[in-house]
Amino acid sequence: MSVVKLNVLHWHLYDYESFPLEIRSYPFLWNSSFSPAERYTRSDVRHLVAYGKAHGVRVVVELDMPGHASSWCRGYPDVCPSHACDQPLNVANPRTFTMVRDVVAEIAGRGTSDAVYSDATGESDKEPPLFDDDFIHFGGDEIELDCWKVAPTIMAWLKHHDMTPIDGVTLFISRVVRIAEMNERTPIFWEEVFHNHRAALGNDSVVQVLLLHFHRDCCLFCDAFSNVFKIDRKLHTLS
To answer: For the CA atoms of 49, 16, 24, 205, what is the dihedral angle to 10 degrees?
Structure first.
């Protein structure tokens, strides 16, 4: 990458099919990896990040959510809508956000919310970050809400809070923004979040533009390359 002047590795860490990273606070997350040989240990990640630094390449991890995250369900089914219909992540279950907070904290080296593994291992939950870049990508693209709409507990929760499923996604994104800020990381989202849930974005949120068409809101034409823009919250435009 460094030879051709590419200085950022955007690592889309997981998707529907597999969560391959060792997360000590939630050791069953990588149960969804394709095989034990197709996993990344913490040591693997630190080696890769250090190798990138030595060659002038930053590693920015993407934790795509609430869609593209059904791989979480294999180890922790309660954070998904149901066994039969497993995405997006369950906005109605507080454990979902505890888990998101702890995963982000572990990746950022900030320590989990309740030190869930320190007693068992005898080690502190305060460790150097796995990914030490100032940015974490949280995806937010291609969110299909069909599973929420057929999950009685989620629909009852949304009704109780006078929210639509779209409102639920906006709430989810806003909580992710706060979690990123708590861990001193700048959140990046795909541009669909800007178009559909921009009220959730913080002053320092970053939008990555990828869709290849003319955008009414930002008045620019995107070519085949991704471009990154900071949000001006007051104007709700890309700048």
So the answer is: 60
According to DSSP, residue 40 is labeled B
Catalytic residue among 142, 144, 191, 192: 142
Q: How many Å apart are CA 183 and CA 63, to the nearest integer? A: 14
Q: Tell me, yes or no, if 142 is annotated catalytic.
A: yes
pTM of the shown model: 0.84
Strand arrangement, sheet containing 206-209 = 8-12, 58-62, 135-137, 186-190, 206-209, 227-232, 237-238
Residues 6+ apart with CB under 8 A from 162: none
- Print pLDDT tens along the chain (239 aa): 766 678 899 999 998 889 999 999 999 999 999 999 999 999 999 999 999 999 999 999 999 999 999 999 999 999 999 988 989 999 999 999 999 999 999 999 976 555 444 444 445 456 789 999 999 999 999 999 999 999 999 999 999 999 999 999 999 999 999 999 999 999 999 999 999 999 999 989 999 987 655 455 554 434 433 455 565 544 444 44
Residue 61's DSSP bridge partners are 11
